[in-house]
Amino acid sequence: MLGTGAMAQELVVKIGHVGPTSGQIAHLGKDNELGARLAIEELNAKGVTIGGKKAKFELLAEDDAGDPKQGTAAAQKLADSKVNGVVGHLNSGTSIPAAKIYSDAGIPQISPSATHPKFTRSGYKTTFRVVADDVHLGGTLGKYAVQQVKGKTIVVVDDRTAYGQGVGDEFIKGVKAAGGKVVAREFTTDKATDFTAILTTLKGKKPDVIFFGGMDAVAGPMLRQMKQLGISAKFMGGDGICTANLPKLAVDSLADDQVVCAEAGGVEGASKKTLEDFKTRFEAKFNTKVEIYAPYVYDAVNVMVAAMVKAGSAEPAKYLPVLAKTEGYKGVTGTISFDNKGDIKNGALTMYTYRGGKRAEIAVVR
């Protein structure tokens, strides 16, 4: 019978993570999942206590393949498993329908990367995100295209997903607000590999800026085909294309400074070292570099747990109000505070380009 008292004092806390760990953007989904794994391992090593009990954190990882149907099935599975909270999903197209399931079950959900405005505007009390949304991201890129890149003939292509279409819409608004003009808009899909027809049409417009709303798996081949067709326009996009993997996917078709992209989030000054330390730990642990969102997943898990500790309970109904009032949490991606919609306050954006096949920071903008 020895040790049962100690066992009774242990509290198992189940945290769900959902991302596309199969399919075209599996490299991004795996990156997210590893961010969650690192957070969970470090929390367990620290020996966190919640309400006087030693907490043991368990990660329940699900794959949604970036597909809304699979996303809602994964969400239902986690809700049925009575998880204490969920970090995910990666895409807006899966996060938005899943949000209703978590809301119905009363389970807090923090997305590390869903940027579509609608995600936090459905009135659910359980929905949060730790990155700036597309209104901010697309709008900032649109203004940047006109004011900094000096784009005169701007065209837009999007992949028709909730994310791609949404960021494309906001980019166009940003261009117009800055006094610029979008002369054409074309559509593709998030599974497409051949863009010859679209690019040939656009080439006739002699664009100096092509904005793509979508992910790196599509942007890479598109850049390759632009080079083949002799299109030397600046290529702009949101966080979906702004990955470490883009040069590899473009197979040496990237000219230095050709791409301008923005990632939701951004750290300045002293916070930079915190983020670099995280990347070093991540690389040592998993023998791979951070793609893009792993640090945001890591912060999302830790913000959730900090609310549980403060509330003295891992029960969703008890720690949810504390989570909603999160103010000034110091994460590896910067300071996290939520507004009344569950959006991050004063979210930063980082503008990047690529030089010599590596991502290079241009500036942090708010």
Automatic annotation (TrEMBL):
InterPro entries: Leu-bd (IPR028081), Leu_Ile_Val-bd (IPR000709), Peripla_BP_I (IPR028082). This is Branched-chain amino acid ABC transporter substrate-binding protein. Keywords: Amino-acid transport, Signal, Transport. Belongs to the leucine-binding protein family. Residues 13-355 form the Leucine-binding protein domain. CDD domains: PBP1_ABC_LIVBP-like. Pfam families: Peripla_BP_6.
